[in-house]
Q: What sequence folds into this?
């Protein structure tokens, strides 16, 4: 764009006009835009095996063992952990691990005192709750297992599979 300035009827070219400062008002305009992100509540869970080891039917003492459940939930998300009866059968008050038709009574508890059965929250069972420490940080819950004493059963390996359910 060629700029000319008229002085006394004469037109000065842009080169001459550049020599004389021209004061111009600068103009600006602006706007804003929102920035957002959403973190949805999420959880995942892993569990280690609970192995009681060798059971002695003649021992007058129960056989104890533990397992760890690792819950990974969004920071601050409340959750509850429930355990089912298991594939070995029985009921919450007397879970069983099985070897064919033979069963061995045991149960799972919320603490080492072995007083509160860990189940689904119905009947005489409780669930275990917590708050998420993050999707990359485990909140660990200990499962306390106990096989009842003085069960005279045939030799073999007795098993069950427990399903862990996390509600958040």
A:
């Amino acid at each position: 764009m060629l700029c000319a300035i008229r002085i006394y009827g004469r037109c000065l070219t842009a080169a001459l006009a550049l020599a004389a400062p021209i004061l111009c008002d600068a103009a600006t305009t602006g706007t804003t835009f929102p920035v957002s992100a959403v973190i949805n509540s999420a959880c995942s869970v892993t569990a280690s095996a609970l192995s009681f080891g060798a059971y002695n039917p003649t021992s007058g003492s129960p056989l104890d063992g533990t397992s760890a459940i690792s819950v990974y939930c969004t920071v601050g998300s409340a959750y509850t952990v429930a355990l089912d009866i298991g594939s070995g059968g029985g009921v919450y008050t007397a879970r069983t691990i099985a070897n064919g038709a033979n069963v061995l009574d045991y149960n799972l508890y919320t603490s080492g005192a072995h007083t509160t059965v860990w189940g689904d929250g119905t009947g005489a069972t409780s669930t275990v709750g917590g708050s998420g420490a993050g999707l990359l940080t485990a909140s660990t819950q200990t499962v306390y297992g106990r096989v009842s004493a003085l069960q005279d059963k045939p030799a073999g390996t007795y098993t069950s599979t427990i399903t862990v359910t996390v509600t958040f």
Summary: The helical segments are 14-19. DSSP finds one helix and 13 strands in the chain.
